[in-house]
Protein backbone atom coordinates (compact mmCIF):
# COMPACT_ATOMS: atom_id res chain seq x y z
CA UNK A 1 0.00 0.00 0.00
CA UNK A 2 1.14 3.51 -0.59
CA UNK A 3 0.16 7.17 -0.40
CA UNK A 4 1.69 9.30 -3.13
CA UNK A 5 1.43 13.08 -2.62
CA UNK A 6 1.87 15.77 -5.25
CA UNK A 7 1.49 19.35 -3.99
CA UNK A 8 -0.45 21.60 -6.35
CA UNK A 9 -0.72 25.09 -4.86
CA UNK A 10 -3.15 25.08 -1.94
CA UNK A 11 -4.12 21.48 -2.71
CA UNK A 12 -2.33 18.13 -2.77
CA UNK A 13 -3.17 15.32 -5.18
CA UNK A 14 -3.06 12.18 -3.03
CA UNK A 15 -2.94 8.84 -4.86
CA UNK A 16 -4.10 5.85 -2.79
CA UNK A 17 -2.83 2.45 -3.93
CA UNK A 18 -3.73 -1.06 -2.74
CA UNK A 19 -1.39 -3.63 -4.28
CA UNK A 20 -2.64 -6.96 -5.62
CA UNK A 21 -1.28 -8.98 -2.69
CA UNK A 22 -2.73 -6.49 -0.18
CA UNK A 23 -6.37 -6.48 -1.31
CA UNK A 24 -8.58 -8.91 0.67
CA UNK A 25 -10.18 -10.21 -2.54
CA UNK A 26 -10.61 -9.40 -6.23
CA UNK A 27 -13.91 -7.59 -5.61
CA UNK A 28 -14.38 -3.84 -6.05
CA UNK A 29 -12.90 -1.51 -3.43
CA UNK A 30 -14.21 1.95 -2.52
CA UNK A 31 -12.18 4.67 -0.80
CA UNK A 32 -14.07 6.31 2.06
CA UNK A 33 -13.11 9.12 4.42
CA UNK A 34 -13.68 12.62 5.73
CA UNK A 35 -13.26 13.95 2.19
CA UNK A 36 -16.48 12.27 0.96
CA UNK A 37 -18.34 12.17 4.29
CA UNK A 38 -17.93 8.37 4.43
CA UNK A 39 -20.73 7.89 1.87
CA UNK A 40 -20.68 4.21 0.86
CA UNK A 41 -23.00 4.90 -2.06
CA UNK A 42 -20.61 7.41 -3.67
CA UNK A 43 -19.50 5.49 -6.76
CA UNK A 44 -17.14 8.30 -7.76
CA UNK A 45 -14.73 7.07 -5.05
CA UNK A 46 -14.61 3.48 -6.30
CA UNK A 47 -10.95 2.61 -6.84
CA UNK A 48 -9.76 1.86 -10.36
CA UNK A 49 -8.38 -1.60 -11.05
CA UNK A 50 -4.96 -1.52 -12.68
CA UNK A 51 -3.77 -5.06 -13.18
CA UNK A 52 -4.33 -6.59 -9.78
CA UNK A 53 -3.94 -3.30 -7.91
CA UNK A 54 -6.49 -0.66 -6.93
CA UNK A 55 -5.75 3.05 -7.42
CA UNK A 56 -7.62 6.30 -6.68
CA UNK A 57 -6.38 9.90 -6.75
CA UNK A 58 -8.10 12.59 -4.66
CA UNK A 59 -7.46 16.35 -4.58
CA UNK A 60 -7.30 17.45 -0.92
CA UNK A 61 -6.90 20.86 0.68
CA UNK A 62 -3.58 21.48 2.43
CA UNK A 63 -3.28 22.33 6.11
CA UNK A 64 -5.63 19.56 7.25
CA UNK A 65 -5.64 15.87 8.20
CA UNK A 66 -8.14 13.41 6.76
CA UNK A 67 -9.27 10.05 8.18
CA UNK A 68 -9.94 7.25 5.72
CA UNK A 69 -10.40 3.48 5.21
CA UNK A 70 -11.03 1.08 2.34
CA UNK A 71 -14.22 -0.97 1.89
CA UNK A 72 -14.09 -4.23 -0.06
CA UNK A 73 -17.35 -5.20 -1.75
CA UNK A 74 -17.33 -8.69 -0.24
CA UNK A 75 -14.73 -8.61 2.57
CA UNK A 76 -15.61 -5.42 4.43
CA UNK A 77 -13.41 -2.69 5.87
CA UNK A 78 -9.61 -2.65 5.93
CA UNK A 79 -6.84 -0.11 6.57
CA UNK A 80 -3.90 1.17 4.56
CA UNK A 81 -0.69 -0.12 6.14
CA UNK A 82 1.19 2.92 4.81
CA UNK A 83 -1.08 5.62 6.28
CA UNK A 84 0.63 8.64 7.86
CA UNK A 85 -0.96 7.81 11.22
CA UNK A 86 -3.86 5.97 12.85
CA UNK A 87 -6.53 7.35 15.19
CA UNK A 88 -9.45 5.72 17.05
CA UNK A 89 -12.68 5.66 15.06
CA UNK A 90 -16.10 6.17 16.69
CA UNK A 91 -16.33 2.37 16.88
CA UNK A 92 -14.61 0.67 19.82
CA UNK A 93 -11.36 -1.11 18.97
CA UNK A 94 -11.23 0.14 15.35
CA UNK A 95 -8.73 2.68 14.02
CA UNK A 96 -8.91 4.86 10.92
CA UNK A 97 -5.93 5.66 8.73
CA UNK A 98 -4.85 9.31 8.39
CA UNK A 99 -3.59 11.37 5.46
CA UNK A 100 -1.69 14.19 7.15
CA UNK A 101 -1.44 17.40 5.11
CA UNK A 102 -1.34 19.66 8.16
CA UNK A 103 2.34 20.45 7.61
CA UNK A 104 1.76 21.47 3.98
CA UNK A 105 1.24 25.25 4.14
CA UNK A 106 -1.54 26.88 2.19
CA UNK A 107 -0.04 29.47 -0.15
CA UNK A 108 -1.33 32.95 0.60
CA UNK A 109 -0.69 36.32 -1.00
CA UNK A 110 2.17 38.14 0.79
CA UNK A 111 1.33 41.28 2.74
CA UNK A 112 3.08 44.20 1.04
CA UNK A 113 3.63 46.36 4.10
CA UNK A 114 5.80 45.03 6.93
CA UNK A 115 3.71 46.89 9.51
CA UNK A 116 0.50 45.29 8.25
CA UNK A 117 2.15 41.85 8.25
CA UNK A 118 3.23 42.31 11.87
CA UNK A 119 -0.28 43.38 12.86
CA UNK A 120 -1.81 40.31 11.20
CA UNK A 121 0.69 38.03 12.97
CA UNK A 122 -0.09 39.61 16.34
CA UNK A 123 -3.84 39.29 15.79
CA UNK A 124 -3.47 35.63 14.84
CA UNK A 125 -1.35 34.91 17.92
CA UNK A 126 -3.89 36.51 20.25
CA UNK A 127 -6.73 34.61 18.57
CA UNK A 128 -4.93 31.28 18.97
CA UNK A 129 -4.10 32.00 22.61
CA UNK A 130 -7.72 32.82 23.45
CA UNK A 131 -8.96 29.81 21.50
CA UNK A 132 -6.57 27.51 23.34
CA UNK A 133 -7.59 28.90 26.72
CA UNK A 134 -11.24 28.18 26.02
CA UNK A 135 -10.79 24.50 25.18
CA UNK A 136 -10.27 21.39 27.31
CA UNK A 137 -9.17 17.93 26.21
CA UNK A 138 -12.60 16.34 25.91
CA UNK A 139 -10.97 13.01 25.01
CA UNK A 140 -10.41 12.54 28.75
CA UNK A 141 -14.14 11.85 28.95
CA UNK A 142 -14.72 8.15 28.33
CA UNK A 143 -16.75 7.64 25.18
CA UNK A 144 -15.45 10.78 23.44
CA UNK A 145 -12.89 10.39 20.66
CA UNK A 146 -11.12 13.04 18.52
CA UNK A 147 -13.96 13.45 16.01
CA UNK A 148 -16.71 13.73 18.61
CA UNK A 149 -14.56 16.16 20.64
CA UNK A 150 -14.28 18.38 17.55
CA UNK A 151 -18.03 18.20 16.94
CA UNK A 152 -18.87 19.13 20.55
CA UNK A 153 -16.36 21.98 20.51
CA UNK A 154 -17.92 23.35 17.33
CA UNK A 155 -21.34 23.25 19.03
CA UNK A 156 -20.10 25.25 22.03
CA UNK A 157 -19.19 22.40 24.40
CA UNK A 158 -15.41 22.66 24.11
CA UNK A 159 -14.75 22.85 27.85
CA UNK A 160 -15.44 20.49 30.75
CA UNK A 161 -17.51 23.21 32.39
CA UNK A 162 -19.74 23.72 29.34
CA UNK A 163 -20.14 19.99 28.78
CA UNK A 164 -21.09 19.43 32.43
CA UNK A 165 -24.06 21.79 31.97
CA UNK A 166 -25.28 20.17 28.74
CA UNK A 167 -28.43 18.06 28.81
CA UNK A 168 -28.18 14.48 27.60
CA UNK A 169 -30.98 15.22 25.14
CA UNK A 170 -29.05 18.08 23.52
CA UNK A 171 -25.93 15.92 23.24
CA UNK A 172 -27.96 13.14 21.62
CA UNK A 173 -29.35 15.65 19.13
CA UNK A 174 -25.84 16.83 18.22
CA UNK A 175 -24.64 13.25 17.65
CA UNK A 176 -27.72 12.42 15.60
CA UNK A 177 -27.20 15.46 13.39
CA UNK A 178 -23.54 14.48 12.87
CA UNK A 179 -24.61 11.23 11.19
CA UNK A 180 -25.04 7.50 11.86
CA UNK A 181 -21.37 7.03 12.78
CA UNK A 182 -21.95 9.18 15.86
CA UNK A 183 -25.63 8.70 16.77
CA UNK A 184 -24.84 5.19 18.07
CA UNK A 185 -22.91 6.70 21.01
CA UNK A 186 -24.60 7.13 24.40
CA UNK A 187 -23.66 10.44 26.09
CA UNK A 188 -25.60 9.78 29.29
CA UNK A 189 -22.52 9.91 31.53
CA UNK A 190 -20.64 12.69 29.74
CA UNK A 191 -22.00 15.67 31.74
CA UNK A 192 -21.28 13.87 35.04
CA UNK A 193 -17.75 12.97 33.91
CA UNK A 194 -17.19 16.53 32.70
CA UNK A 195 -18.32 17.97 36.05
CA UNK A 196 -15.68 15.90 37.86
CA UNK A 197 -13.03 16.89 35.29
CA UNK A 198 -13.97 20.57 35.57
CA UNK A 199 -13.53 20.46 39.35
CA UNK A 200 -10.26 18.54 39.08
CA UNK A 201 -11.61 15.42 40.83
CA UNK A 202 -9.54 13.08 38.67
CA UNK A 203 -9.55 10.22 41.20
CA UNK A 204 -13.35 10.26 41.35
CA UNK A 205 -13.48 10.48 37.57
CA UNK A 206 -11.20 7.44 37.27
CA UNK A 207 -13.41 5.50 39.70
CA UNK A 208 -16.50 6.39 37.67
CA UNK A 209 -14.86 5.49 34.36
CA UNK A 210 -13.80 2.10 35.72
CA UNK A 211 -17.50 1.32 36.07
CA UNK A 212 -18.38 2.48 32.55
CA UNK A 213 -18.29 0.57 29.28
CA UNK A 214 -17.39 2.89 26.40
CA UNK A 215 -18.84 5.87 28.28
CA UNK A 216 -22.18 4.19 29.01
From TrEMBL:
<protein>
    <submittedName>
        <fullName>Predicted 5' DNA nuclease, flap endonuclease-1-like, helix-3-turn-helix (H3TH) domain</fullName>
    </submittedName>
</protein>
<keyword id="KW-0540">Nuclease</keyword>
<dbReference type="InterPro" id="IPR014756">
    <property type="entry name" value="Ig_E-set"/>
</dbReference>
<dbReference type="InterPro" id="IPR013783">
    <property type="entry name" value="Ig-like_fold"/>
</dbReference>
<dbReference type="GO" id="GO:0004519">
    <property type="term" value="F:endonuclease activity"/>
</dbReference>
<dbReference type="Pfam" id="PF14520">
    <property type="entry name" value="HHH_5"/>
</dbReference>
<keyword id="KW-0378">Hydrolase</keyword>
<keyword id="KW-0255">Endonuclease</keyword>
Amino acid sequence: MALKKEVKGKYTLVTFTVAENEAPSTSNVILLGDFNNWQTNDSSFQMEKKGGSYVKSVKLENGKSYEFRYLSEDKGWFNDHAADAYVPSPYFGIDNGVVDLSAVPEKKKPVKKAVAKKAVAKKTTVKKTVSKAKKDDLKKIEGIGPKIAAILTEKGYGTFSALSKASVKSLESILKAAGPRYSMHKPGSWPKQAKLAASGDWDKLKTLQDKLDGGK
